[in-house]
Specification:
By secondary structure, the protein is of the alpha/beta class. The chain is built from 16 helices and ten strands. It folds into two domains: 145 residues, Malic enzyme, N-terminal domain (Rossmann fold); 229 residues, Rossmann fold (3-Layer(aba) Sandwich). The protein is 43% helix and 12% strand. The strands form two sheets. Strands 7-6-5-8-9-10 form a six-stranded mixed beta sheet. Strands 2-1-3-4 form a four-stranded parallel beta sheet. Strand 3, helix 7 and strand 4 form a beta-alpha-beta unit. The model has no long low-confidence stretch (mean pLDDT 94).
């Protein structure tokens, strides 16, 4: 293993650390037996005390089945573990949230739901990660319905929150309004569906979604239940066809598919267009090509400006939800997170700087505060 990246991963990227001393007999008796029995009895009588006297109030399970890892695809739970460890240290490093990677050796929807429900008492939240569509929709929906702690599929909602934040600031740069735009979303998987939902919730007027067979519209007979929703709620002009028809006169292109888009189609977009080509490592439109036809370009890569990085969202979202004991993460909380991310750099905007750096220390606290406030307003708090 000659690649230098392996040196950073030897022995894994995380460890468990004690928060209390273990230097004396008294320390041991308070941290473990016999003292711990007093706390156990108190929680047995008042289960809500688990949030105060265990790590549940600041702990998240990062759960995957390894079926849709990064751009690598269905590589299985063991190969997914380095990504889940990475997610866990981002939680800790950016928001002080303790996270445990849990890689399940099953891709059966019902079994995943059963296992996560069985694990849930030990955590304050569940971050679903790298689970393929359409199973991810059912798994998340069922767990939200059946658990009383936040459940959040980051591939969907983390991406959606940061896309909306970036678009809000791009609109500030160009002095445009969201409901005036023709927005094309290339990809109808987990991220594409969530981006569509959050843009509609934020007030987008004209959204067109494409999957591998072209524009999603109500006349197609090959749509699953999720795509039937998309067909009913988008494409107000009733367009049919593919990229050529969708991109003609479009103001915004959001790529979340991993497929490639030819320059001839991008050239059909409106003047001053915005292109967010988010597949990583290979964007749907290469940034150099996109720059020939768009005024604002964003990617999912760290080596180009305007990186749409989920780390801007998920640490602060969970921190805010845990801080108020939220039972779920609502659409209002996601919208609040997007606004908070955008506002961090609202006074520093340029076409090549529409989102904060992933390393900006202002982001997670701002997101956490906004999410906590939204949770209180919506009445989903335990604390």
């Amino acid at each position: 293993m000659d690649h230098p990246v392996f040196a950073r991963h030897v022995g894994g990227k995380m460890e468990i650390a004690s928060r209390v001393p273990l230097a004396s007999r008294e320390d041991l008796s308070l941290a473990y037996t016999p003292g711990v029995a007093v706390v156990c009895e108190a929680i047995a009588q008042r289960p809500d005390l688990v949030h105060e006297y265990t790590w549940v109030g600041h702990a998240v399970a990062v759960v995957t089945d390894g079926s849709a890892v990064l751009g690598l695809g269905n590589i299985g739970p063991r190969a997914a573990l380095p990504v889940m460890e990475g997610k866990a240290i981002l939680f800790k490093g950016f928001a002080g949230v303790d996270a445990v990677p849990i890689c399940l050796d099953t891709q059966d929807t019902e079994e995943i739901i059963r296992v996560v429900k069985a694990l849930a008492p030990g955590f304050g939240g569940i971050n679903l990660e790298d689970i393929s569509a359409p199973r991810c929709f059912e798994i998340e929906r069922r767990l939200i319905d059946e658990l009383d702690i936040p459940v959040f599929h980051d591939d969907q909602h983390g991406t959606a929150v940061v896309v909306l934040a970036a678009l809000k600031n791009a609109l500030r740069v160009q002095d445009k309004k969201l409901n005036d735009l023709k927005i094309v979303i290339f990809g109808a998987g987990a991220a594409g569906v969530a981006v569509t939902r959050i843009l509609l919730a934020a007030g987008a007027g004209d959204v067109i979604v494409l999957d591998s067979r072209g524009i999603v519209h109500s006349g197609r007979e090959d749509l699953n239940s999720v795509k039937r929703f998309l067909a009913a709620e988008t494409n107000r002009a009733g367009l049919t066809g593919g990229l050529a028809e969708a991109l003609y006169g479009a103001d915004v292109l959001i790529g979340v598919s991993g497929g490639q888009i030819a320059e001839e189609f991008v050239a059909r977009m409106a003047p001053g267009a915005m292109i967010f080509a988010l597949a990583n490592p290979t964007p749907e439109v290469q940034p150099e090509v996109a720059a020939r036809h768009a005024s604002i370009v964003a990617t999912g890569r760290s080596d180009y400006p305007n990186q749409i990085n989920n780390v801007l969202a998920f640490p602060g979202i969970f921190r805010g939800a845990l801080d108020v004991g939220a039972r779920r993460i609502t659409e209002g909380m996601k919208l609040a997170a997007a606004t908070a991310i955008a506002d961090v750099v609202a006074d520093e905007l340029r076409p090549d700087a529409i989102v904060p750096s992933p390393l900006d220390p202002r982001v997670a606290p701002a997101v956490a505060a906004a999410v906590a406030d939204a949770a209180r307003r919506e009445g989903v708090c335990r604390l």
